[in-house]
Amino acid sequence: MLRIVGLTLAVFGLPGSELALAENEQHIQLRTTDETGCYITDGKFTSPTIGVAAGLYHEAWFPKERALRIINVALASGCDIGEPDDVGSTPLIASIIYNEPA
Predict the structure, then answer these.
(1) Cα torsion at 87, 93, 95, 99 (round to 10°)?
(2) Rounded CA separation 65/69 (Å)
(3) Chain segment 4-20, per-residue pLDDT in tens
(4) Tens digits of residue pLDDT in 66-83
(5) Strands 46-48 and 31-32, bridge-based pairing
(6) Among candidate residues 63, 90, 87, the one with its CA nearest the CA of residue 79
(7) Is 56 helix (H, G, I), strand (E, B) or coil?
(8) What pLDDT sits at residue 3?
(9) What's the domain range around 83?
(10) 3 lies in some domain
């Protein structure tokens, strides 16, 4: 499983994404796949932005308020909250598994 250890401003390309920054020693360069910002990629994998942010919510090193901000910005941009990732998991499934808010 890929563990995202850092994000950069240009990653999401969504309005307000400057709040999505995390500072760590190592950075994975994520970027949106199109102008909607509904999918992000590192060049090897592509996943729904909301799903990635939902996964980051339970990571101790990533600020919860930033994960929520990413989700809110993606929703405001028209991204589908029910979009499954490459293994079929949705943000709702992740929230149940991790006992976190959807």
Answers:
(1) -110
(2) 6
(3) 333 333 344 444 444 44
(4) 989 999 999 999 999 999
(5) unpaired
(6) 90
(7) helix
(8) 34
(9) 9-97
(10) no
| pLDDT band at residue 27 under the 50/70/90 scheme | low
Task: Find out whether 51 and 89 touch, Cβ atoms under 8 Å.
Answer: yes
Inside any domain, residue 31? yes
**How far from the centroid of its chain's Cα atoms is residue 16's Cα?**
14
How many other β-carbons are positioned within 10 Å of the β-carbon of residue 49?
A: 29
User: Residue 47 in contact with residue 86, Cβ under 8 Å?
Assistant: yes
Q: Is residue 2 part of a domain?
A: no
Total domains, the chain = 1
Query: Rounded to whole angstroms, how far apart are CA atoms 79 and 20?
Result: 17
Collect all residues with Cβ–Cβ distance below 8 Å to 7 and sequence separation of at least 6: 20, 21, 22, 27, 28, 30
